[in-house]
Amino acid sequence: MTVETTPATTPDTGFADPPATVTAAQQMAKDFIDGFRELSKKLPKFESPHPTTVVSQRGRLNMPPAFAKAVADQVAMSPELQVFTAYDLEGTQSDIQQVDALTPVADEMRNYMKAMLFSLNGKRVKVNNAGLRMYAFARAMARDPQYAHIGAVADTINEARRRKKRPATAGAPPSQNGGVVEQKGGATTTAATSH
User: Tell me, what's the pLDDT at 187?
Assistant: First the structure.
């Protein structure tokens, strides 16, 4: 004999799920990221670092800044050297101009990023110190039988304190071109990216 059962259903209350609340800080961050990505469209496309290219780059970054320009200047004045087709004179001159123009931009962004990370780490220290003080206060209060229920609160706080740290990339917005998200000083950063 087969008994048919009706699956349990959740009653329709007529109320839709409430939308997620966006905090003022989250909206500020989103507006900045959107604006930054729009602004970055004014720059050429950048390459994201990759293990196969980082090493080869590092080996040639030890040349003096004036070296490439000196070579380009000499080739431009020497038609005999321009027969060497492996050297792209116009492309090299364009790259040198971009390096000269965009290096101050990169310096400005690096300085801003340092200040941002230092400020964020300062806020982390501030809230963690406040949390530790509250935890100590809750433990002391829980020793009084009248506030025994605070012991459970202190235990919950202690569990959160001992919980393993989340990966640095958890919840971090992806970089504009899907580039590498790096961690510095315990803070998540998104590499400056292209469009």
Answer: 47
Longest Cα–Cα distance of the chain, Å, equals 99
Q: State how far the Cα of 101 lies from the Cα of 118, in Å rounded to an integer.
A: 27
Tell me what pLDDT residue 3 has.
63
Is the pTM higher than 0.85? The answer reads: no
The answer to whether 166 and 34 are in contact (CB under 8 A) is no
Place of tokens 């235990």: 155
Q: 189 CB contacts (<8 Å, ≥6 apart)?
A: 113, 117, 181, 182, 183
Tell me how far apart the alpha carbons of residues 119 and 132 are, in angstroms, rounded to a whole number.
20
CA distances from 21 to 17, 27, 69 (A): 12, 10, 54
Sign of CA dihedral 49, 177, 187, 39: positive
Q: From 185, 176, 186, select the one nearest 47 (Cα to Cα).
A: 176
Helix (H, G, I), strand (E, B) or coil at 193: coil
Task: Indicate the pLDDT class of residue 15, thresholds 50, 70 and 90.
Answer: confident
Cα 49 to Cα 191: distance, rounded to the nearest angstrom: 9
Q: What are phi and psi of 184, to 5 degrees?
A: -135, 130
Specify the amino acid at residue 97: Q
